[in-house]
């Protein structure tokens, strides 16, 4: 519950900064809401998942990996400001709030019981954005942008075993904080004040190891002692709608 309160707190801070910036320096701004398709490098997480699957098989249970951190949808909200009376062209700056998630699953199930190991990765980002808008036609424009996100990442792990009517569940949680760089390009079509667009970004973030919740001295590692990092790097494609003010 605390995580969701923290997420809403971040969003409130973001809206407060947006309001103050607009009233202090900007003459216009653009609001965008985007549906994202996020890919994840997740190399350490996939390695740890493969090791866990081998350990389960080593105990005589023929478990298999049924999902391994695939592309998954997310949401992003942007406010972009300009000190020009024509905010749809030229250099602009602003910020964004981003929600992304993915996960993995190992599973075995038969008439006598089941074993399921779920790993759910969630990331909440608050970032700065700088973009250069280039007019193609009177309604179509291309934007080159770079974002600097600060990322709060959470990994929820759940191992559930059931034999007959008896079950057992282990549910440790981990977290990490990082920052990164996200260059990208977008194309938008403007109709009066409304815009619809496509975007393509690539996120590169500092690899930070997961820490056990409530115990920052305990780090998540693989069996050979390698730290398990966030693995958020990847292509982020978006479909967005917006309003120019």
Description:
With 245 residues, the protein is of the alpha+beta class. It has an 8-stranded antiparallel barrel. About 2% of the residues have low confidence.
Low-pLDDT segments: 21-26
Mean pLDDT: 87
SSE string: HEHEEEEEEEEEEE
Query: Within the largest sheet, what's the order of strands?
Result: 1-3-4-5-6-8-9-12
Class based on secondary structure composition and strand pairing? alpha+beta
How many DSSP helices?
2
Extended strand count: 12
Strand fraction: over 45%
The biggest sheet, with number of strands, parallel, antiparallel or mixed sense and barrel status, is: 8 strands, antiparallel, barrel
How does the overall form come out from the CA principal axes?
A: elongated
End-to-end Cα distance, whole Å, is 36 Å
Task: Supply Rg.
Answer: 21 Å
Helix amount, in percent? 10-25%
């Amino acid at each position: 519950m605390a995580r969701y309160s923290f997420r809403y707190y971040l969003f409130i801070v973001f809206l407060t900064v947006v309001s103050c910036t607009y009233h202090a320096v900007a003459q216009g701004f653009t609001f965008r809401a985007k549906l994202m398709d996020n890919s994840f490098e997740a190399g350490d997480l996939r390695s740890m998942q493969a090791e866990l699957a081998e350990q389960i098989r080593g105990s005589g249970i023929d478990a298999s990996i049924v999902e391994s951190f695939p592309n998954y949808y997310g949401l992003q909200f942007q406010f972009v400001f300009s000190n020009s009376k024509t905010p749809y062209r030229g250099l602009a700056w602003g910020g964004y709030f981003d929600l992304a998630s993915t996960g993995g699953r190992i599973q075995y199930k038969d008439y006598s019981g089941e074993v399921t190991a779920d790993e759910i990765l969630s990331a909440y980002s608050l970032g700065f954005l700088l973009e250069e808008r280039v007019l193609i036609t009177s309604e179509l424009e291309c934007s080159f942008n770079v974002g600097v996100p600060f990322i709060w990442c959470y990994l929820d792990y759940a191992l559930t075993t059931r034999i007959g009517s008896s079950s057992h569940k282990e549910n440790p949680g981990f977290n990490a904080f990082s920052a990164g760089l996200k260059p990208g390009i977008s194309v938008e079509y403007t109709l009066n004040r409304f815009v619809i667009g496509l975007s393509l970004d690539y996120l590169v973030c500092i690899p930070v190891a997961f820490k056990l919740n409530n115990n920052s001295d305990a780090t998540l590692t693989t069996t050979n002692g390698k730290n398990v990092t966030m693995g958020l790097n990847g292509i982020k494609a978006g479909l967005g709608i917006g309003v120019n003010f």
